[in-house]
Structures are given as structure tokens and as C-alpha cells.
Amino acid sequence: MNASDRLGLIAGNGRFPFLLLEAARARGLHVVVAAIKEETDPEMDTRAANDSGMEVHWMSLGELSKLIDTFQKAGVHNAVMAGQVRHKQIFSAIRPDWRLAKLLMSLRTRNTDMLLGAIAKVLSDEGIELVSSTAYLEPMLAKQGVLSQRTPNETERNDIAYGLTVARGIAGFDLGQTVVIAAGACVAVEAMEGTDACIARAGALMGSLEDDASTLARSLTVVKVAKPRQDLRFDVPVVGVPTIRAMQAAGATCLAVEAGRTLLFDEENMLREADEAGICIVGE
Predict the structure, then answer these.
(1) Are 37 and 63 in contact (CB under 8 A)?
(2) What averages of pLDDT result for each successive group of 10 residues across the chain (284 residues)?
(3) Alpha-helical segments (H) within the chain
(4) Angle at 83 between CA 88 and CA 124, to 5 degrees
């Protein structure tokens, strides 16, 4: 098997790594998985036990040298990142190896773009090129227009328009990609906590209001966008069934995502649950 038949997969948490794995295997690629101890689902070992076309190597989030050595020994020259690695892990008790420590010390800011871009540069210098995960998952990208049975009402339309302006503004600063809007007001902005936690925070805030304290609509609209210069090699915007369930719990009624740049995981079940909950979904 030559190098072009091999793909490295840096696996974070959630279902994204498994979807990428299935897409790569369907193309006949041998997949070398770098599983992160702090993030990757242990199910990855079960998959490997039943598939000779993949192999799994476990390592800590701080072991950048081990990642490089693993891919080089396996003959990997192209790799993808799939699955979230929680940004707050940067501030955890994980000990970086000498290579990662040196990289972290060289960064003037430690936002997602800066950190992952630096890691991509280190990998490239070692002969390992990061490629976009969307190259394997293009059919899962959100399409333009209303995707659910219900269309947005006038209030939701206005909140989408305002939310897009706010979301693109914060995304430009690499703070997050999601905002939650109600009646033309920004209720919550995503930062390090992630989309679902941002939605939950917005729901808790609205739920804390007195029942008769406001004449404004309290339904929440969630808007998620890509960054203005989004590097699709990592940090691809993703929504799925958990997003819909978080919205239900928070009392959110509308979800707007950026068409062609947002992955819809388990789209059929996601849309079914949204329709059952009366939630509308729009690709903008």
C-alpha cells in the first residue's frame, strides 16, 4: 500500500471522527487514527478490532511529538482533524511535551486559529499535510434555503438577519461561531464553552425572567456561522441531533446555519426531531 492510500485521522470527541472514518474507508483508504485520550470515544478500539483497514494509536493531548512519530512510522503524509478538542483543555492539567510547549510559548494569543494553525505548520514541516475534512463529507454540508417543514416567522427572520451580523462579527475575532437572539436582542454569545452550552445559557437566562415582566417575544433563534477566513482543515461548524435537543431544552424555535460551510450530522434524524419539536432550520 502506498502513501496515497493512507490517511491520518486526528480524532477528537463526538461522532465526527466516526463519520470521517466511514467516508475514508468507503474510498478504500487505510486510516491511521491518532486517538486523544482526553477526548476520543473508546468505541474507536471496537471499530479497529473489526476492521483491518484501520489502526488506532492512543496518545495524550499534549504529545505532539508522539503524533508526528506515529504518522511518520505509519507512512502517513495526509491527515485530517475531526471532532472537537475542547479549547478549555489548554488550561487543564495536561502536560505538553517539549515540542508542544515550545509551540505554545511562541504564540502571542492562544485562540483556536492561532493554535491549530501553528500545529498544522509543525506537521507540514514534518511532511504531514492537513487537508479539509469536508473533502470527504461534502454531501453533509447544509444546503441553501428552508430545510425543515416549518418556515421562519417574521420575528425569527428578523432575528436571523441580526444574528448573522453579530455572529460574523464575533467569528472574525475567533471568539466563537454561535449567537442566540430573542426579539432583536443578543441573549448569548459562544466563547470557550461550545454551542450547546451557549444555547443552554441563553435558555437559563430567558427562563429566569418573570412571566409578566416583558411584552417582547421570548422565543430564541440560534445562528451559527463559519469564520470569515475559516480554515476548513479544522474547526468546521457542525450541528446535529444534540443541537436540536439543546434548543428544545432552552425553548429555542429557529436555527440558522451557513449554507455550504456547515456540516449537518445525521441530517435525517436531525430534521425529524426538529419537525416534531416545531423548530425551523434554515441554510443562509
Answers:
(1) no
(2) 80 90 94 93 95 95 90 95 71 69 73 72 91 86 96 96 94 85 94 90 86 65 86 78 96 96 93 98 97
(3) 16-26, 43-49, 64-73, 98-106, 112-125, 134-137, 154-172, 195-207, 241-250, 267-277
(4) 90
123-144 exposure pattern, b = at least 16 Cβ within 10 A, e = fewer: beebebebeebbebbeebbbee
CA 278 remoteness from chain centre: 24
Element (H, E) at 187: strand 185-189
Cell representation of residue 34: 491518532
CB-CB contact of 193 with 171 (8 Å): no
Burial tier of 41 (Cβ tally within 10 Å: 0-12, 13-18, 19+): middle
Specify the pLDDT at position 231: 67
Q: What is the dihedral of CA 31, 35, 41, 44, to 10 degrees?
A: 30
- Measuring CA to CA, how many Å separate 3 from each of 7, 26, 28, 128? 8, 17, 13, 11
Does residue 221 contact residue 181 with C-beta atoms inside 8 Å? yes
Spatial separation of the C-alpha atoms in residues 175 and 178, rounded to whole Å = 9
Burial class from Cβ neighbours inside 10 Å (0-12, 13-18, 19+) for residue 84 reads middle
